Amino acid sequence: MPQDWYVLHNTDHLVTPSLVVYPERISKNIATMIKMAGGPSSLRPHVKTYKMADIVNMQLDQGIDKFKCATIAEAELLAICKVKDVLLAMQPVGATIDRYVQLTKKYADTTFSTLVDNIGTIDGLQAAASKNGMQIHVWLDVNNGMNRTGIPPDSSAVKCYTAIAESPNLTAKGLHVYDGHFRNPDFQKRKTACDTAFEQVEQLKDDIIKLGMEVPDIVVGGSPTFPVHCKRKNVQKSPGTTLLWDQGYSDILPELDFECAAVLITRIVSKPAPNHFCLDLGHKSVAPEMPFPRVKFLNLESKSEQIKHSEEHLVVRSENSNQYNVGDLFYAIPYHICPTVARYDEVYVARNNQVEAVWKVAARSNKITI
Q1: Which pLDDT tens digit goes with each residue over 245-258?
Q2: CATH 3.20.20.10: which residues of the chain?
Q3: Helix boundaries (H) for the chain
Q4: Which residue among 157, 217, 302, 355 has the highest number of C-beta atoms inside a 10 angstrom radius?
Q5: Which CATH superfamily is domain 261-360 in?
Q6: pTM score
Q7: What confidence tens digit (pLDDT) does each residue in 224-239 have?
Q8: Does residue 241 carry a pLDDT above 90?
């Protein structure tokens, strides 16, 4: 009989806990992303979920040529992969400004851009660009309700955009908007909230253009609002989790046709009490910031319950624990894949139920060379 897609053969040599990725599923997710966007040209996917050159290259092979990232290390990884257009979607402050300048100098074949949301950062980037005799491409980061970063789309945003446009060593690229707070499982309610918030961004664009400035592009959205923004023309869409997907988004975004493409493998290390067993899947191995459950087990009965989590251990209560032995292997999909990937230096790569390679999580750390 055919094996379940996630099951691996010859697992005795595999280290646990570990993360396994499935390229065929990743490829399908890339194709789904491109189809939803109406082609690759309007896509600017976020690299922060996977941080691996191999997955960047899979997207390049399917025609995606613009990417978004959160760290200098991720930006450098993209440049190493010879990506032509890279947006650092984390406002550079402090020492990061100098690192950003070094990055742009070292990888001259890549066009880099970054975000700002205040006059102070604009002045800092202008000073650095002037000192180094260079031009820095800048997007205005707009806060349309998430209240994490960005500037409200009002007169203060117009003032900031004007400051960018008037800075001799800065080039205004347009507006950046991340609306990750729209996560209603009801798609129509999510769409209505997203569209209403985006009206402010469109009005801001109109206000800027009326003053004689250009707004070349808008980079917008993440995975939850990706299907909404796919209906808009002349915007760049920047989903990230769509590449590997996870159980959290599978639960709250049921209309999206992405497949989970990363699975944790873990083993029972102890059976400390009746109806209990302990796995080697601690905080250091899976994102722990979510409430229980932290993972969805693929080969464990549904009546089990995750009850205790610490640095190296995950304790499960199960009425059928007598069916399992110390050393037994389990497969689990994390509820939050992005910080889970960041816990691993490398991942196993599986095709046809066999581990065939290892991929390096190259941008896991804060630094590659710069």
Answers
A1: 999 999 999 999 99
A2: 23-244
A3: 23-37, 53-61, 72-80, 95-106, 119-131, 155-166, 187-210, 226-229, 247-252, 337-341
A4: 157
A5: D-serine dehydratase-like domain (2.40.37.20)
A6: 0.97
A7: 999 999 999 999 999 9
A8: yes
